[in-house]
Amino acid sequence: MRTITTTEELAAYCKEAANHPFVTVDTEFLRERTYYSKLCLVQLAMPGTDDSGAVLVDPLVDGLSMEPLYDLFRDTSVVKVFHAARQDLEIFFVDAQVFPEPLFDTQVAAMVCGFGEQVGYETLVRKIAKEGVDKTSRFTDWSRRPLTDAQKTYALADVTHLRQVYEFLAAKLEKTGRHKWVEEELEVLTNPDTYITAPRDAWKRVKTRTNSGRFLGIVRELAAFREAYAQDRNVPRSRVYKDDAMVELASNKPKNHEELGRARLLLRDARKGEIADGILKAVAAGLACPNDDLPQPDRGREKLQVNPALADLLRVLLKAKTESSGVAAKLIATAADLDAIAAGERDVQALGGWRLEVFGTDALALCAGKIALTAAGNEVKVVPV
């Protein structure tokens, strides 16, 4: 189990990897105590059937630069293979504003290839590679050194078995002509906007039961302050204050430290110092916000006049298409998509791209009364009207 600890070693490995059609990649990281993930380990494997082309890279070693790896990521002749890549990609984007290109995500590919919704790595290894994965080191502190042999074995398994999983799924996509579908889905993973949370937009992630513009205006200011504070100091949002405390503050609207001290859900550290001052300024800003600048709740869904019978038919159609195509239903269309279509909306993800071919065309025909659904035993069939 080789561990790379110098930039020179990493550069040599990446130079060799660049001669291969693909390389598998995984990371181990910590995020419990920080806003941004702390990269603790990178695992890499070149094509092969043994561990000779697999290595661990220790980014915590002083003086080791990750730039050779990022150069490999920029090399478009080598496919970079991940499983459930989103958190890994966020780490590399935050660190170096780089995305692996081209990218292959086996979780996305598996959903297109009939393995169900958000299938786990362990399941794919068992079904495709016919191997088991020891997950005893799953919950571990990857920042501690030295790493144990058990940790290293666990970490390497995340890229060695991934080679066979990738080769199987890539071949299946090529055979079915669905590789373009996967590429469409991966576009969001290589979009910088996916990983950037602007403080001014952070309020949209807070669940509230009140749609008052003034209330939401205060939530917007409180969420913006929390996001900026957490980003600047690299601490989790929850260490500043949690969502339930934010909602309480927006409801009670404290105007001074004495009133702030009565908040039941606020952490002790948030009742004084910079956080307390920031809260009071945010509340004041929300109260002073002009009416025409207050955020408005999205009531678009509330206004939809959903035809419930048509929505039910669309659900039956989706189930039929899922079974015939082998593509996970959640990947084709969400429940909200189906309701929107049944209400007459047409700017819906399920009606565009590869989804139009798999589901959208027949969904529109069903809405227009041009097709009907019939049952033949356990199978649902589409028939023209």
Automatic annotation (TrEMBL):
<dbReference type="InterPro" id="IPR002562">
    <property type="entry name" value="3'-5'_exonuclease_dom"/>
</dbReference>
<keyword id="KW-0269">Exonuclease</keyword>
<comment type="function">
    <text>Exonuclease involved in the 3' processing of various precursor tRNAs. Initiates hydrolysis at the 3'-terminus of an RNA molecule and releases 5'-mononucleotides.</text>
</comment>
<dbReference type="InterPro" id="IPR036397">
    <property type="entry name" value="RNaseH_sf"/>
</dbReference>
<dbReference type="GO" id="GO:0008408">
    <property type="term" value="F:3'-5' exonuclease activity"/>
</dbReference>
<feature type="domain" description="HRDC">
    <location>
        <begin position="212"/>
        <end position="293"/>
    </location>
</feature>
<dbReference type="GO" id="GO:0000166">
    <property type="term" value="F:nucleotide binding"/>
</dbReference>
<keyword id="KW-0963">Cytoplasm</keyword>
<dbReference type="GO" id="GO:0003676">
    <property type="term" value="F:nucleic acid binding"/>
</dbReference>
<comment type="similarity">
    <text>Belongs to the RNase D family.</text>
</comment>
<dbReference type="InterPro" id="IPR012337">
    <property type="entry name" value="RNaseH-like_sf"/>
</dbReference>
<dbReference type="GO" id="GO:0042780">
    <property type="term" value="P:tRNA 3'-end processing"/>
</dbReference>
<dbReference type="InterPro" id="IPR010997">
    <property type="entry name" value="HRDC-like_sf"/>
</dbReference>
<dbReference type="Pfam" id="PF01612">
    <property type="entry name" value="DNA_pol_A_exo1"/>
</dbReference>
<keyword id="KW-0819">tRNA processing</keyword>
<keyword id="KW-0378">Hydrolase</keyword>
<dbReference type="Pfam" id="PF00570">
    <property type="entry name" value="HRDC"/>
</dbReference>
<dbReference type="GO" id="GO:0033890">
    <property type="term" value="F:ribonuclease D activity"/>
</dbReference>
<dbReference type="InterPro" id="IPR006292">
    <property type="entry name" value="RNase_D"/>
</dbReference>
<dbReference type="InterPro" id="IPR002121">
    <property type="entry name" value="HRDC_dom"/>
</dbReference>
<keyword id="KW-0540">Nuclease</keyword>
<protein>
    <recommendedName>
        <fullName>Ribonuclease D</fullName>
        <ecNumber>3.1.13.5</ecNumber>
    </recommendedName>
</protein>
<dbReference type="GO" id="GO:0005737">
    <property type="term" value="C:cytoplasm"/>
</dbReference>
<dbReference type="InterPro" id="IPR044876">
    <property type="entry name" value="HRDC_dom_sf"/>
</dbReference>
<dbReference type="InterPro" id="IPR051086">
    <property type="entry name" value="RNase_D-like"/>
</dbReference>
